[in-house]
């Protein structure tokens, strides 16, 4: 058993007969009244996000997880296939478990959290950013760059990302996997 002082991002807990991963938390100590922890929890079974408040000192049941490095192989319908880089064992996961499946490129390494009690995969942690090539982008019209104007571009995985007007087909761009937003152009 853990208490609210042990809460941190990425912690997996049992709550309401389900397993949740803490994606955001904030310790609040108001001037009047007891302290509490405001959290944002994502269900690892159906992907729904839930806001919850725990009072200070509340006991929470922690789920023991192990993180293993897996390599993304290929998609098949709603299933995504991964291979353990140490044991070469292959698993397939539903796309609901993935945070941003549209940004996964074949050969990409990810961390998979596995419940040690049941040996079932709980969540997939992608790298903070990925570098992908733009396969389609409307040409930028000269003179339209006075403001922070953006256009949509399609990257090699098929995902659509809003990018600045100066990005063209064939450019490699860095994308934040948490928000799915453009970060910078990468020159090689």
Please give a structural write-up:
The chain folds into three domains: 11-55, SH3 type barrels; 65-125, Beta Barrel (OB fold (Dihydrolipoamide Acetyltransferase, E2P)), CATH 2.40.50.140; 129-185, OB fold (Dihydrolipoamide Acetyltransferase, E2P) (Beta Barrel). It starts with a strand and ends with a strand. It is flat, with a radius of gyration of 20 Å. It has 188 residues and is an all-beta fold. Strand 8 and strand 9 (90-94) form a beta hairpin. A six-stranded antiparallel β-sheet has the order 1-6-2-3-4-5, with no helix packed on it. Strands 9-8-7-10-11 form a five-stranded antiparallel β-sheet, with no helix packed on it. Strands 14-13-12-15-16 form a five-stranded antiparallel β-sheet, with no helix packed on it. It contains no helices and 16 strands. It is found in: Cytoplasm. This is Elongation factor P. Belongs to the elongation factor P family.
Give a quick summary of the entry.
The chain has strands at residues 2-3, 12-15, 18-28, 36-43, 49-55, 59-62, 65-76, 79-84, 90-94, 109-115, 121-125, 129-137, 150-155, 160-164, 172-176, 181-186. It is mainly β. A hairpin with a 5-residue loop joins strand 8 and strand 9.
């Amino acid at each position: 058993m853990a208490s609210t002082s042990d809460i941190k991002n990425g912690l997996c807990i049992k709550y309401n007969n389900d397993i949740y991963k803490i994606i955001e938390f904030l310790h609040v100590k108001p001037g009047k009244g007891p302290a509490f922890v405001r959290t944002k929890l994502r269900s690892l079974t159906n992907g729904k996000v839930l806001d919850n408040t725990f009072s200070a000192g509340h006991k929470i049941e922690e789920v023991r997880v192990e993180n293993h490095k897996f390599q993304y192989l290929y998609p098949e319908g709603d299933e995504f296939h991964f291979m353990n880089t140490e044991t070469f064992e292959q698993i397939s996961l539903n796309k609901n478990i993935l945070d941003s499946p549209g940004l996964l490129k074949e050969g990409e390494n990810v961390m998979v959290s596995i419940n040690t009690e049941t040996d079932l995969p709980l969540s997939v942690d992608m790298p903070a950013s990925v570098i992908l090539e733009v396969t389609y982008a409307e040409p930028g019209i000269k003179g339209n760059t006075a403001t922070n104007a953006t256009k949509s571009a399609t990257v090699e995985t098929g995902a659509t990302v809003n990018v600045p007007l100066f990005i063209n087909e064939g450019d490699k761009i860095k994308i934040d996997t948490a928000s799915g937003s453009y970060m910078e152009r990468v020159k090689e």
